[in-house]
Amino acid sequence: MKIALLGNPGVGKSLIFNQLTGLGVEVNRYPGSSVELECGNVCYKQEKTEIVDLPGIYSLDGNSEEETLVRTFLTSGGADVIVAVLDATKLERNLYLFVQAAEFSPKMIAVVNMIDAAERQGMHIDAESLSSHIGVPVILAAASEGRNIDRILPVALGQATPAKVHVPYDHHIEAALKSLEKTIGTPMHTNLLALQGTGDDTVLLDAAGAIAQEIGMRHRMSVGQIIATNRHNFAREITASVVKRTAQKKPYDLDSLLTRSFPGIPILCTILFLLLLSVFMIGSWMEEIIVTVFTTSVIAPFLALGLPPLWNQIGFSVLIALQAGLGIAFPFIFTFYIGLSLLEDTGYMTRAAFLSDRAMHRIGLHGEAIIPMVIGFGCTVPAIMSLRLLKTRREQTIAAILVTMIPCSARTVVIAGIVAAFVGIFWAFSIYLIIFILLILTAVVLSRITPGEQFGMIVEMSTLRRPQARLVLAKSWLRIKEFLFIAMPVLIVTSILLGLFQFFGLTELFEQLVAPVTVTLLGLPGYASTALLFGVFRKELAFETLAVLAGTANLGMVMTSVQLYTFAIVSVLFVPCVSTIAVLYRQLGARIAIITSLYTVFLGLIIGAIINILMK
Amino acid sequence: MQPSLREDYLEAVQLFSNKNARFPLTEELAAALSKPVPAVRSDIEKLVSGGDVIIVAEGSITLTAQGKQTGTCVMKKHETLQCFLSEILGMDSHRASDEACTLEHTVSDETIDRLGKLIGTHEHHRHQEKGKHRTPAGERACKGETDEYCESPGISDFSEGDEVVIQCIHGRACAQRLLDLGLVPGEHATIKRKLSNGALVVQVKGCDVAVSPEIASAIGVERLP
Fold first, then answer.
1. How many domains does the structure of chain B reveal?
2. Contact flag A358-B206 (C-beta cutoff 8 Å)
3. Is the CB of residue B56 less than 8 Å away from at least one CB of chain A?
4. Half-sphere exposure of A357 (CA within 13 A, CB side)
5. CB pair distance less than 8 Å for A460 and B210
6. Which one of B42, B63, B84 terminates a domain?
7. Residue B148 — very low, low, confident or very high, per pLDDT cuts 50/70/90?
8. DSSP of A500-532
9. Which of B122, B220, B96 lies closest to B164 in space, CA to CA?
């Protein structure tokens, strides 16, 4: 048996999924899409049941990747039973998706979640009445308290049935549906989509398009609007007859603080600053422990084995890559993910998007782009992955180039380790300042030259709620797994290549080759080029390699302040790390990956040269 | 000289003069049409003898009243056809332009008139939204909604705390998501928050929806009576 959870974003699907499946969740990429599906198995009455958590969507009519995926899932009979999860506090809006799904006539049950919150708001939902209206079993549940979650599986496996809902569409639409069914023989849900211009049957689309045009002219309203209005009205009628409201004192509305320019924007800045600061503090503390433990318990014993030199080098490179992955992934990125999941699960992220909409418009983006930008401070790789949130190619392109320039946690390590330690803390902040000025300039230029159309922000504000520790951890864990999955192979391969590079003594050749750039243009010592090269592998390695090559950890002794400053700014700006290039290539294609890499190299060298000339 | 060739020339001259605020030289016209200069020169002579153009002192090809009328007319036909093909039939805009180049010579005035009326609602909407910063002007030539006739002011014209009734959603791209979130005609909405740039939080069906200023101006509403 296969059960799929369907619902709007933020209805508590993931929590229910987690409670049903426990550990052992797998993330699968649906064929032909970059959307992920979480799958888990449970045993119920000696029978294995697979549970799929479909992505949260508002509608089945749209053309976003998520909507298309769920639609294909429903038409291809991807699951035996659909468990529709509805938010009790927003029942009317949630029933809109339910009635759409019901038109595909799968076996369904409805879980009305967050009943506890609804009760607090003075809403009482009559489950039996709702069940008789929609024709499927209804469970009133509160996932945050675990209430009635145990009833979901037995009911889903035993009593699920196709829903009996029929939206009373406008009579012209009904007539169109009948005539399409008669002439072309396609089912109702396909015809409804075709009337709105979605589908792949050209004969049907042609016929439906002509009818839709006619209906649109007659109603002075597009068919999509008529259909949506009919469905919403139907949902409203059901809701009116099953929900009883008693007047309740309104609780204090935090949004009166959070979404106003003041004090909303200062709060936003404080939250982001605290997030980055705590990630950096916790991260560097944990990294040190991990690196020390790894060095003493794995690397030292391996080196003691005394393998032949070539194998020794390869093995060592692999271990170093593992150490790097763990040393960055867990301390910095995992901590960051926890903070990020907290922001998302409390519902604050949508407020942040709303507040930053204005600033983002200035640079050709809109509020939703704040999310990749914030993630970029943690790590560029997941930030690029999250660009899928943005709807147009133009926005994705602009945001991708900006995100690669944002100083991620590894680059923060470089700035802190080199500039803050040897030049001065204010100089370290000046690097941030330079980067932000460059970011804004780049953004302004990009927003002028990038072709395509701008699409504004339309975001549902999530309800503010207390995050669930278990869910936050589970989410962060899934994300870190994905990060390791992408970054680890790249790290290991590059590490081996660089190891061999060193082993065959190519380092010096390379240094001589690029000496005109490093020594003449940037005024750095020759060995700095190798350190910069290693920085492409992972950014904070630039700092570590520099220390090794300089032969001392006290860099202030061997390089001047200007050299250190130049080195830091060049390594921070130039070329995103290999993992970033890999994920850019995967998400946005080779062209953007190449442009971004070239642009950042160029920018790094130019700025480095300017600083060298100005401050020498 | 074939009538279609003549129309192509006159259209190209008209287009050039619209774009550059002066008439083209023979070389410039040849470049615009991607044709060899000598061929263009001999064709221009035919146009001169036909009374469509005159060559003025500096050598620029100037349209006569007769030439201008034909040129403008063909250009309009091209625009209408391209708009129809790309916006209503959904063809790729380059292919639509190519196709329009062929059709513009044979299409009757009545067809163009009727197509123009069909697309006319575009014009109407463009006029309405004038002054509101939406998409860049160049992009907008054919954009807009085809089948809406709503004249209500945008929700962005109202202020925080106002209660309104949604009348219509302009623009196709953002319409679907708004409709899905419950912003459908006839629905009551409250403006919960309005920032100085015009970004709004609209409460509808008990849910808060945040929208950018340009989206807000696409939501036509009336004040709740």
1. 2
2. no
3. no
4. 30
5. yes
6. B63
7. very low
8. HHHHTTHHHHHHHHHHIIIIIIT---TTHHHHH
9. B220
* A260 in contact with chain B, both atoms CB, cutoff 8 A: yes
Q: Using CA atoms, how far apart are residues A13 and A431, in angstroms rounded to an integer?
A: 43
Domain boundary residue among B33, B63, B93? B63
What is the 3-class SS of chain B, one letter each residue? CCHHHHHHHHHHHHHHHHHHCCCCEHHHHHHHHCCCHHHHHHHHHHHHHHCCEEECCCCEEEECHHHHHHHHHHHHHHHHHHHHHHHHCCCCHHHHHHHHHHHCCCCCHHHHHHHHHHHHHHHHHHHHCCCCCCCCHHHHCCCCCCCCCCCCCEHHHCCCCCEEEEEEECCCCCHHHHHHCCCCCCCEEEEEEECCCCCEEEEECCEEEEECHHHHCCEEEEECC
Residue B132 lies in a domain: no
Percent of chain A with pLDDT over 90: 34
Confidence class for position B146, pLDDT limits 50, 70, 90: very low
- Contact indicator for A607, A434 with CB cutoff of 8 Å: yes
What is the residue range of B171's domain?
155-223
- Answer yes or no: is pLDDT of A381 > 60: yes
> Nearest CA of chain A to the CA of B21: how many Å?
25
pLDDT tier, A442 (very low <50, low <70, confident <90, very high otherwise): very high
Answer whether B148 sits within 8 Å of A90, measured CB to CB. no
Q: Is residue B106 part of a domain?
A: no
pLDDT confidence of residue B150: 64
CA distances for B126 relative to B122, B131, B140, angstroms: 6, 10, 8
Between A123-127, A374-378, B120-124, the lowest mean confidence (pLDDT) is in B120-124
- Residues from chain B that touch A355, judged by Cβ atoms under 8 A, are 195
Kindly indicate the confidence band of residue B51, based on its pLDDT and cuts at 50, 70 and 90.
confident
Min Cα distance B147 → chain A (Å) is 6
Q: Is A373 exposed, middle or buried (0-12, 13-18, 19+ CB in 10 A)?
A: buried
- How far apart are alpha carbons A111 and A134 in whole angstroms? 12
Q: pLDDT by residue (tens digit) across A52-71? A: 999 889 999 888 888 888 99
Least confident of A162-166, A340-344, A504-508: A504-508
- Say if B92 falls within a structural domain: no
> Residue A546 above 60 pLDDT?
yes
Count CB neighbours of B93 within 10 A.
14
Q: What is the CATH number of the domain that holds B200?
A: 2.30.30.90
**Residue A3: per-residue pLDDT:** 93
From A118, which residue of chain B is nearest by alpha-carbon distance?
A: B206
Contact A566, A608 (CB under 8 A): yes
Q: Is residue B212 part of a domain?
A: yes
pLDDT at A88 exceeding the cut of 90: yes
- CATH code for the domain in which residue B16 is found: 1.10.10.10
Going along chain A from its start, the domains and CATH numbers come out as: 2-162 (3.40.50.300), 171-245 (no CATH), 252-616 (no CATH)
